[in-house]
C-alpha cells in the first residue's frame, strides 16, 4: 500500500517581498553597470579597460568592509593595494593607446565610465552578501536561484530600455535587410 505524503507546506516561490524588492534593485544596478562597462569598452582599448576593471577588487573590498563588516588582514590589504595600484599605474601611463579618430574627451569619458563600472560592480557583490545576511530566512539553492533570476530579468529590462533609447535595434534590423 502506498502512503501519501501531504506537501501542502511546499511553496512555489520562496522569496519574501523584501528580498524581491532588493533583487530588483540589484538587477537595476547591474543593468546600469553593464551599460557603463559596454560604453567604456567601446571607447577604450581592451588593454586599458581590462586594467581599469582590475580595480574592481579594491572597490569590492572597500564596500565589503563598509556594508558587511568584512575583516581584513595585513596580507589581504597589501595584496589589494598592490594589485589595484599596479593596474592604475599601467592604465595611466598608456599614452599611445587611444583608438584612431577618437577625441580626448571620448577617451576620458570611456575611462571614467569603465572605472565607474568597476566601482558599481564592486558595490553589487557586497549588496548580494548583505541581502543574504538580512534575509531573515534560510538561504537555499532554490532561493538563490530565484534571487538570481529576478536580478537578471531586471538587469535585462534596463539594458533593453537603454538599447531602445539608443536605437540599437534599428541598427540590427538594417543589417539584416
Automatic annotation (TrEMBL):
Primary location recorded for the protein, binned into one broad class: membrane
**Domain of life of the organism in this record?**
Eukaryota
What are the protein's UniProt keywords? Answer: Membrane, Transmembrane, Transmembrane helix, Transport
Any Pfam family: PUNUT
Subcellular localization(s) per the UniProt record: Membrane
Record keywords: Transmembrane helix included?
yes
| GO MF annotation, one | purine nucleoside transmembrane transporter activity
> Looking at the UniProt record for this protein, which Gene Ontology cellular component terms does it annotate, in alphabetical order?
membrane
Q: Where are the transmembrane segments?
A: 12-32, 44-68, 75-95, 107-128, 140-165
Membrane topology, as annotated, equals: Multi-pass membrane protein
Q: What PANTHER family does the entry give? A: OS09G0467300 PROTEIN-RELATED, PURINE PERMEASE 2
> What's this protein's family per the entry?
Belongs to the purine permeases (TC 2.A.7.14) family.
**What is the designated name of this protein?**
Purine transporter
Q: Which organism is it from?
A: Solanum tuberosum (Potato)
State the taxonomy lineage: Eukaryota, Viridiplantae, Streptophyta, Embryophyta, Tracheophyta
Amino acid at each position: 500500500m502506498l502512503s501519501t505524503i501531504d506537501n501542502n507546506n511546499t511553496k512555489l516561490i520562496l522569496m519574501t517581498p523584501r528580498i524581491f524588492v532588493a533583487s530588483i534593485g540589484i538587477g537595476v544596478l547591474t543593468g546600469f553597470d553593464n551599460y557603463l562597462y559596454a560604453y567604456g569598452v567601446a571607447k577604450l582599448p581592451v588593454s586599458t579597460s581590462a586594467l581599469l576593471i582590475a580595480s574592481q577588487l579594491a572597490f569590492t573590498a572597500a564596500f565589503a568592509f563598509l556594508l558587511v563588516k568584512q575583516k581584513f588582514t595585513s596580507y589581504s590589504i597589501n595584496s589589494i593595494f598592490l594589485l589595484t595600484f599596479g593596474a592604475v599605474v599601467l592604465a595611466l601611463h598608456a599614452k599611445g593607446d587611444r583608438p584612431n579618430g577618437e577625441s580626448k574627451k571620448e577617451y576620458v569619458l570611456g575611462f571614467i565610465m569603465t572605472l565607474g563600472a568597476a566601482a558599481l560592480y564592486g558595490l553589487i557583490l557586497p549588496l548580494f552578501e548583505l541581502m543574504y545576511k538580512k534575509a531573515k530566512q534560510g538561504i537555499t539553492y532554490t532561493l538563490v536561484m530565484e534571487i538570481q533570476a529576478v536580478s537578471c530579468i531586471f538587469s535585462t529590462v534596463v539594458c533593453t530600455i537603454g538599447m531602445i533609447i539608443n536605437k540599437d535595434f534599428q541598427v540590427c534590423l538594417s543589417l539584416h535587410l
